[in-house]
Amino acid sequence: APRRRRRRRRPPLFLLQLIEDRPAVDALEGDARARDMPAHVVNPAASIARAFARASDAASAKATRRAFTPSARSRAALRGRAPSTFRLSGTPAPRVVGRVVVASAAAATPSAGEDADNTAGGVPSWHPDVLDPDQIDGDVPTPGFATIASALEDVAAGKFVVVLDDEDRENEGDLIGAADAMTAESIAFMIKHTSGLLCVAVDDETADRLNLPLMVTSKENEDAMKTAFTVSCDLAASTTGISAGERAATIAKLGDAKAHKDEFVRPGHVFPLRYREGGVLKRTGHTEAAYDLAKLSGRGAAGVLCEITNDDAEGTMARLPQLREFSKKHDLKMILISDLVRYRRKREVLVRRTASARVPTEHGAFTAVSYKSETDGIEHVAFVYGNLDDEGKENGGSLADGDNVLVRVHSECLTGDIFGSSRCDCGNQLDMAMQRVASEGKGVIVYLRGQEGRGIGLGHKLRAYNLQDEGRDTVQANEDLGLPVDSREYGVGAAILRDLGVKTIRLMTNNPAKYHGLKGFGLTIVGRSPLFAPITLENKR
């Protein structure tokens, strides 16, 4: 019988990242040399990546990278939109000169269909990644988009605005307005140009007052973005509740601060959403954007929102080119959530610095700077290695040079960080990050408290351990307990970094979600370096 041709196995994504991330490989192998041990013993992943990088089968490596890397996947999926600016630390980053991007010679060229006048060196000038937050006034929008102030004027006048989130998040545009300004005509317009699932962003106090509990508990929420749907509702005086006029009446009443729970029936045809306390400074979603826009406009604390779709046979989601055309046709302002974050950050304080002190460690002397969250009161700490400029700072200053800073945003892990549990590699990753920062001579370790067990809490984490003993992995254990796989948020971490004067960062993480979570808050990430701790029988799940 003929021999079956062996199928070539593709290397996992983290190896491909290491191939591109030569500085990370060098750092890992340098760590091995420092311990006077063979590199393949201390960090086998680095050795494998190095070997693969030297492999003669370049075509296979190229095909594998094309299949796995986010930028390639984005180019294939977005067709004509600007390529993703996701970069690993081995890739040259564009230089920002004022508002102009000077890309490296290796930068990708614009694909067919892109607006050549709106790009520089292959990177679109509207993309948030190319804007240095410290060079931009919080009131100045990303090029090609409206100012937040002008959008707020329109919302206050009862008009809609088009709001886009990050291209690496949902990558969609929502039609958003103030709930209390809705009329039959405005809702008819909204229904015609969107998916038709009309939602209203409200705060927890309003939802509780109107008896609008969550549709499913946060533990049972399986939505990719953890959107907090409540039970649907209609105004009690409605007949069918589905017409534009009756939905407008329901939505307007949800935006009425004097509304009473007895004025609604449940379920219905309008879908309230509970926004996350802190708004877009806490979670960069359309729910939070709708609430913030309505509140900042002075209309009230409830915003209506729905995803804009194309007028085609399939009712596909509208992307940037279609959203630009739609906004122009209907004379609507178009804004970015990232611009709303900058607008709010200029006017509000997310964290407050409380103290600082020199803390000697086995890796050298760090400056510990404590912070208190203004939204939930939790205290966090940043361990800074490098010179702090004390000018203008009561409790320590800012990094003298905030560019290209090596950063680790580490979520609290009591069992791993303090007690050395071998069920996870958290303690090892923290130790490796501190060692790498000290070796470089400049960097920040942000330690976020209140995020035990990926945000599920210590008790639930210990229950998940019991399920892992029965054979589940971390994700399966959380799901079996009805808990979110990962509920961590990084807005506070971003605020701490900016308070320390950090401008551009090289992020040490194995978690792409952390990359996107920080990027949404205006930090310019010029590279990502993985942290590979030893794999044991206990932590391999």
What can you tell me about this protein's structure?
With 541 residues, the chain is of the alpha/beta class. The chain folds into four domains: 13-68, no CATH class; 71-135, no CATH class; 148-346, DHBP synthase; 349-451 and 488-529, GTP cyclohydrolase II (Rossmann fold, 3-Layer(aba) Sandwich). The chain is built from 20 helices and 20 strands. The chain has a seven-stranded mixed sheet, with helices on both faces. Strands 12-13-14-18-17-19-20 form a seven-stranded mixed sheet, with helices on both faces. Strand 5 (161-164) and strand 6 (173-178) form a beta hairpin. The longest helix has 15 residues, at 426-440. The radius of gyration is 25 Å and the shape is globular. Residues 7-21, 34-47 and 49-137 have low confidence and may be disordered. It holds the Pfam family GTP_cyclohydro2. Its cofactor is Mn(2+); Mg(2+); Zn(2+). GO terms for molecular function: 3,4-dihydroxy-2-butanone-4-phosphate synthase activity; GTP binding; GTP cyclohydrolase II activity; metal ion binding.
Task: Describe the structure concisely for a colleague.
Helices cover 34% and strands 19% of the residues. It has 541 residues and is of the alpha/beta class.
